[in-house]
Write a structure and sequence with these properties.
Elements: E1 3-4, E2 11-13, H1 17-38, H2 43-48, H3 50-60, E3 75-78, H4 84-94, H5 134-147, E4 154-159, H6 166-177, E5 183-189, E6 192-193, E7 196-197, H7 198-202, H8 207-213, E8 217-222, H9 226-238, E9 244-249, H10 280-288, H11 297-320, E10 341-343, H12 344-355, E11 361-365, E12 388-390, H13 395-407, E13 411-417, H14 418-421, H15 426-434, E14 440-445, H16 463-468, E15 474-476, H17 481-493, E16 498-501, E17 506-508, E18 523-527, E19 538-542, E20 553-557, H18 561-576, E21 580-584, E22 587-589, H19 593-602, E23 605-613, H20 618-628, E24 636-642, H21 652-658, H22 663-674
Parallel strand pairs: 3-4, 4-5, 5-9, 8-9, 11-12, 11-13, 13-14, 14-16, 15-16, 20-21, 20-23, 23-24
Antiparallel strand pairs: 1-2, 6-7, 10-17, 15-22, 18-19, 18-21
Helix pairs in contact: 1-3, 1-4, 1-10, 1-11, 3-4, 3-9, 5-6, 12-17, 13-15, 18-22, 19-20
């Protein structure tokens, strides 16, 4: 059914095969422009699935873009949330909004988030991004249609790597059990995922016989051929009494020569930007071949300028809301107090390479091995590859397999994005790893909002308390790449389960290789005076070796917020002559209770700062103090964090300002706390 008017059932737009071929080309170009303007995103999968998106939204589904919540519409659930740019251009082409606005991809408050947010744009059925969940939601929607005698149909788009998630197969089984002939699964079968070829990462074949064994009708088709796709959807509509899965065989990066079947283009944008051998302009040439393109240089200029102007406007709005001081204290904006930026994950990788010398260490990958630097374990040491196990996109299974190794006397190190490795498999961590006190070390990468433009589904804002309240768990939350290396060594040496949380993007390096560090002992940091090098402006002590300097306020922080706390201490001294004691709680568990209690007693004013839901870390601090303090002196406390909300898609430093986590904003909270005396 083409696009219709839901009130009159009149056909609004019907496209021929030739029309759809042209529309798919336009959609591919808009997709590439948006990725190029964003500077991040997924080229390969958005191109492989574009013909499917064009056929679905412009030819197959029964929907009305002017009435997105029409109850009798067909539903399309994108379980593969990282392919959101393809969804956006399909919705734009169908008329839900101006397709030109898709160039605002991954920019703060644009609605075109790195992974789809159903509350931000019309036509999105599900906020998604954590793989393996969309099919279950689609089943619930299809069951509701049966229950309420609705005639709408439900489609669920999945990836082939996604078939490695066990939750997919639970859903597959239930769809068959309930004979959901109003449900169509679509698998973008391009054979590649982040870590390599799907058959080599974790083989999912033979999918056809597996789905048939689970009671599904299986239709094979060329997912990059418009005519064959239309025919496949027609066949699916005729199937009765069981669900249908369309195995859409596609080419990853389809239509752009330098991206076709290239593993590296899974999660990157054109390497050469607008011009060059691997660029936006080359992509347009490839997509249109010898035929005429509507995307002239003038049109490209207009679209890219639209994206740039939007970003500039956002930055201006953010900056207008920032506190103003006598001078600019932002990172590297002045001649003094310069700092080096380095991703904390680099420290993890360097440490892991050295730790790998121990033949008792076993490591596991979950399809983002290189991204989180887990591959540093074996990259320069091929003989270690036998001690690395690729588990695919299957966090729960990875955790219990690692526990099995630990039971046999090995030390297992697992890792993936923090939001997945601490949440999806929390019960496995709790019951199998912690209850048994197994030596399973967990790398929670891309912690907090540092993953930026990927958006809420990939931003770990809750994992510190999730891990903290597990008996036998140990937790390290290092502040920079150097401390991440030290924390990795420390967490590996202790017996029992451990969790190390580190970010993705470059953050300030505020310690040195010779900076004092002891597992379980907080560092106390004091600002002395401005220096050419930011780190030289501070003195760092072990809490056990520090004597009070009668500071006015104490900032307690962990992870990347330590650097912001240090910058806040600089501002507080320069602007208000307020002396600040910074407590770097790199070891969150076992926490340095003594240092916290001394600070509460000596200073009486504590400000916790965290890149978490506010109180996740702060309530731990408050609990330690209120349980242990004798209260011979008054004590007040405030908490800075993310205020009971999900993350947003946008550049990491924009998000720091938007969520009130910058040093400038911390300074004003500290000053307010100070003024209460």
């Amino acid at each position: 059914m083409p696009i219709i008017d839901s009130k009159t059932a009149r056909i609004v737009q019907d496209y021929s095969v030739e029309d759809l071929i042209q529309k798919a080309k336009e959609m591919r170009v808009y997709n590439m422009i948006s990725l190029c303007a964003a500077g991040s995103g997924h080229t390969g999968g958005t191109l492989s699935i574009m013909d499917i998106a064009a056929v679905l939204y412009l030819k197959v589904i029964n929907h009305d873009p002017t009435n997105p919540k029409w109850d009798d519409r067909d539903r399309v659930f994108w379980s593969v949330g990282h392919k959101a740019p393809a969804m956006y251009v399909a919705l734009g082409m169908a008329g839900y909004f101006s397709i030109e606005n898709t160039v605002k991809l991954r920019k703060l408050w644009s609605g075109f988030e790195g992974h789809p947010n159903q509350f931000k744009l019309p036509g999105i059925e599900l906020s998604s991004g954590s793989l393996g969940q969309g099919l279950g939601v689609a089943i619930g929607s299809a069951l509701r249609a049966k229950l309420d005698k609705k005639n709408y149909r439900v489609f669920c788009i999945m990836g082939d790597g996604e078939q490695q998630e066990g939750s997919v197969w639970e859903a597959v089984m239930s769809a068959s059990h309930y004979h959901l002939d109003n449900l169509v699964g679509i698998i973008d079968l391009n054979g590649l995922q982040i870590d390599g070829k799907t058959k080599e990462v974790m083989n999912i074949a033979p999918l056809e016989s597996k789905y048939k064994a689970f009671g599904w009708e299986v239709i094979n088709t060329n997912g990059n051929n418009i005519e064959e796709l239309i025919e496949a959807f027609k066949l699916a509509e005729k199937v009765k009494n069981k669900p249908v899965v369309i195995l859409a065989h596609t080419i990853k990066g389809k239509g752009v020569s330098y991206a076709e079947n290239v593993i590296g283009y899974h999660g990157i944008t054109p390497k050469d930007g607008r011009c060059g051998n691997e660029s936006l302009e080359k992509a347009i040439q490839d997509i249109y071949g010898g035929s005429k393109s509507i995307f002239t240089n003038e049109k490209l200029d207009s679209l890219l300028n639209l994206a740039e102007d939007y970003q500039n406007d956002i930055e201006n709005k953010l900056n207008k809301k920032m506190p103003v001081f006598k001078q600019n204290y932002w990172w590297n904006e002045t001649e003094m107090m310069k700092v080096i930026m380095d991703p904390t994950r680099m420290g993890f990788g360097k440490a892991l390479e050295i730790i790998g010398e121990d033949k008792n260490i076993i490591t596991f990958g979950a399809d983002i091995t290189s991204s989180i630097k887990m591959d540093d374990f074996y990259k320069n040491h091929p003989e270690r590859k036998s001690r690395f196990f690729s588990m695919g996109i299957a966090e729960q299974n990875m955790t219990v397999v690692a526990a099995g190794f630990a039971k046999e006397g090995k030390k297992s190190i697992i890792g993936t994005y923090g939001v997945f490795v601490s949440g999806r498999n929390w019960d496995q961590i709790r019951t199998t790893c912690c209850y048994n006190n197994f030596n399973v070390k967990i790398a929670g990468a891309h912690g907090g909002i540092s993953v930026g433009a990927d958006g809420a589904t990939h931003q770990a804002l809750e994992e510190i308390p999730l891990m903290y309240y597990l008996p036998n768990m140990h937790i390290e939350v290092p502040c920079d790449s150097i401390e991440t290396g030290k924390s990795t060594f420390a967490i590996t040496k202790i017996d029992g389960p451990g969790y190390i949380r580190y970010g993705r993007e470059a953050t300030p390096v505020v310690t040195r290789p010779d900076t004092v560090f002891e597992f379980g002992v907080a560092n106390i940091i004091r600002f002395r005076q401005e220096q050419p090098n930011f780190t030289d402006a501070f003195e760092i002590f072990l809490s056990t070796n520090y004597r009070s300097e009668k500071e006015d306020i104490c900032i307690v922080a962990c992870g990347p917020m330590v650097a912001e706390g240090m910058r806040a201490a600089w501002i507080l001294k320069q602007e208000y002559n307020i002396e600040t004691r910074i407590l770097n709680i790199h070891t969150v568990k076992p926490i340095d209770k003594v240092a916290l209690l001394i600070a509460a007693e000596e200073i009486g004013k504590i400000l916790s700062v965290e890149e978490q839901q506010v109180g996740g870390f702060g309530n731990i601090i408050a609990g330690v103090i209120t349980q242990g303090k004798k209260f011979s002196k008054p004590f007040i406390m405030d908490m800075v964090g993310i205020n009971d909300r999900f993350g947003e898609s946008g550049p990491p430093w924009d998000l720091m300002k938007a969520f009130g986590l910058s040093a400038e904003q911390i300074t004003m909270r500290a000053k307010k706390l100070f003024d209460l005396s």
